[in-house]
From TrEMBL:
Protein name: Cytochrome c oxidase subunit 1
Protein family (similarity comment): Belongs to the heme-copper respiratory oxidase family.
All copies of domain Cytochrome oxidase subunit I profile, residue ranges: 35-572
Transmembrane portions of the chain: 56-78, 110-140, 160-187, 207-232, 244-272, 314-331, 338-358, 370-395, 407-428, 440-461, 482-501, 528-549
InterPro entries: Cyt_c_oxase-like_su1_dom (IPR023616), Cyt_c_oxase-like_su1_sf (IPR036927), Cyt_C_Oxase_1 (IPR000883), Cyt_c_Oxase_su1_BS (IPR023615)
Enzyme class: oxidoreductase
Record keywords: Electron transport, Heme, Iron, Membrane, Metal-binding, Oxidoreductase, Respiratory chain, Transmembrane, Transmembrane helix, Transport
Entry's localization field: Membrane
Length: 617
């Protein structure tokens, strides 16, 4: 009696990989005992790039909640200084001061500590590690056709250095003298003199140690990303066939590798000033009426070293979001990305120019006006490749059959934020106008929209789009759309009014404005901004609920390629294991953006070019 063997249907891409793919001998020799793991090695000390991506993402989300809550606390102090914050005393303890009338308010030092921690957490732990660490880890091996990163061990260590860095920073919140309160840029002398203020002591030491550990994490990850892209691309995957997210992650890693060590050198000199008695950053300073016993340093040196990292850091944050948005827009517009090579060259141009514009943060520091002119010119020039990308995104959308899912909405929202936030940078890049606008809320509005909110929009687009690849389920689309509309309206409601109060000269970093009659008529606007910030944060909690609920209860992924996309990550099995492809590695036959070609909606990268077909790349 014959017995029938029932097998699952083989998809077109699976069949092509079996036929045209090539065997790297990995499957035969390494698919067995090497990946039989227990709970600890699978979920905690994992060397699978996909699990490490999830670790970066969830850790970044936790930090985003903490940093966001900090901003709400100091916004409530700013927006409603007459209201009591005594209800926060059980959480914040001595950092809430209660006056004789029972009115509680933030202690000024702790207000500045919250501003400092908020900036540090969001810039480094969320928008650098959370964004680049997540999607570089998730997508580089999958999109280039590799089993894993070049060094899974270094990849694991990069996450754990990031985690330990965060724990060191978090521990500083519990010091009796409080965390560092000198601003996320840590300018001397507040950062270089332990006795300058309470937070300049142990809080500053822990802040510095934390960021040095963070730099180690960035360097370990960056070396891995660069090596993987250069050495582990699958057969047929030339550099000009790479999807745009990979170009963005690759260039971002190079920027980080060149710029973050400079920040470490700045911290090293600062620690010598703090503990050894050198004077790299200190000169002519009086403490309690007594002159500091060493002179000759310059705080401007620190500014140069910090912003040599600080401005490339802007693009370390935004370039991965740009790459993600390029992919999501093309997939959901059902059109090839417009001007692929122009997009790649614009990424390279942005990377190069990001290293020669740092002093536009220092126009008011006393630098030579002729030097300022140099930085003005290149600051305006860097807008050109950014404008090329904006034009190409709009051209990709134009005439497309757009699917308005949460991922595409956030990608379109990114373009809106990048345009509106980027245009205000033209004003700040002008050294003459900057005299009026420097250190006002105009600056806060500009960089929060273009670097903060826009980067978050890119991250959200990526999470919604690749969530099925990470967890085998979909996030709730209705909740995702509520999240989008609440976030984009709320973000504009928070930051657009700041442009106006900034042009009126309202300074940033002030604890309260009741001593300034000039700014009294902005009370209503300050209240509006604070209420909008609280509501907008609520919509982010909606995302968090949707995210964790969908991990276990979301609609299951049942098809290999739910978006009908072309790139290699959608050729892996639905339940993808460590090693990504169970048999042969895919062989790439074409570029990543063959949408709407020859009457076909999409053509996977693994499909050979027909005899009568002219390849784009």
């Amino acid at each position: 009696m014959a017995s029938a063997i029932i097998t699952a249907p083989v998809s077109r891409s699976e069949g092509l990989i079996q036929e045209l793919g090539y065997d790297d001998h990995f499957h035969d020799h390494h698919h067995g005992d090497k990946y039989q793991s227990n709970f600890v090695s699978h979920y905690i000390f994992s060397m699978d790039h996909k699990m490490i991506a999830k670790q970066f993402l969830i850790t970044g989300m936790m930090w985003a909640i903490i940093g966001g809550l900090m901003s709400l606390v100091f916004r409530m102090q700013l927006g409603f200084p007459e209201e009591s914050l005594a209800w926060l005393q059980p959480v914040l303890g001595k950092w809430i001061a209660i006056n004789g009338d029972g009115i509680g308010s933030l202690v000024p030092d702790f207000y500045y500590a919250l501003v400092t921690m908020h900036g540090t957490i969001l810039v480094f732990f969320v928008l650098t590690a959370g964004l680049s660490g997540t999607f570089s880890n998730l997508l580089i091996p999958l999109m280039i056709g590799a089993r894993d990163m070049a060094s899974p061990l270094l990849n694991m260590l990069s996450y754990w250095f990031f985690f330990i860095s965060g724990m060191v920073m978090f521990s500083s919140l519990f010091l009796s003298t409080g965390p560092f309160a000198g601003g996320w840029v840590a300018y001397p002398p507040l950062s270089a003199l332990p006795q300058a203020m309470d937070g300049s002591g142990a809080g500053m030491t822990l802040w510095t140690i934390s960021l040095v550990l963070f730099v180690v994490s960035v360097l370990l990850g960056g070396i891995n990303y660069i090596t993987t892209v250069l050495n582990l691309r699958t057969k047929g995957m030339s550099m000009w066939r790479l999807p745009l997210p990979i170009w963005a992650f690759f260039v971002t890693a190079i920027i980080g590798l060149l710029s973050f060590p400079v920040l470490t050198s700045a911290f090293f000199l600062m620690m010598l000033d703090r503990g050894v008695g050198t004077s790299f950053y200190l000169s002519d300073i009086y403490i309690g009426g007594a002159a500091l016993d060493h002179v000759g340093g310059s705080p401007i040196l620190y500014q140069h070293l910090f912003w040599f990292l600080g401005h490339p850091e802007v693009y370390i944050i935004i370039l991965p979001a740009m790459g993600i948005v390029s992919e999501v827009l093309s997939v959901n517009a059902r059109k090839p990305i417009f001007g692929y090579k122009a997009m790649v060259f614009s990424i390279l141009a942005i990377a190069f120019l990001s290293f020669i514009v740092w002093a536009h943060h220092m126009f008011m520091s006393g630098v030579n006006p002729f030097i300022s002119n140099f930085f003005v010119i290149f600051t305006l020039i860097i807008a050109v490749p950014s404008a090329v990308k904006v034009f190409n995104w709009i051209a990709t959308l134009y005439g497309g059959n757009i699917r308005f899912n949460p991922a595409s909405l956030f990608a379109i929202g990114f373009v809106s934020m990048f345009i509106s936030g980027g245009l205000t940078g033209i004003w700040l890049g002008n050294s003459t106008l900057d005299i009026q606008l420097h250190d006002t809320y105009f600056v806060v509005a500009h960089f929060h929209i273009v670097m903060g909110v826009a980067a978050f929009f890119g991250m959200y687009a990526g999470v919604y789009h690749w969530f099925p690849k990470m967890y085998g389920r979909f996030m709730n689309e209705t909740l995702g759309k509520f999240h989008f509309w609440g976030t984009i309206i709320g973000a504009y409601a928070v930051f657009w009014p700041m442009h106006y109060i900034g042009m009126a000269g309202v300074p940033r970093r002030y604890y309260k404005f009741d001593a300034f009659a000039t700014f009294g008529h902005f009370d209503g606007l300050n209240k509006f901004i604070t209420i909008a910030a609280i509501i907008t944060f609520g919509f982010q909690l909606l995302f968090v609920i949707n995210f964790f609920y969908s991990i276990w209860k979301g609609r299951k992924l049942t098809t290999q390629n739910p978006y009908n996309a072309n790139t290699l990550e959608w050729t892996t099995p639905v339940d993808v294991g460590h090693g990504n492809w169970p048999g042969k590695l895919p062989s790439v036959q074409r570029w990543a953006y063959d949408y709407g070609k020859d009457g076909r909606e999409f053509i996977s990268q693994v499909e050979p070019v027909g005899e009568d077909e002219s390849p784009v790349h």
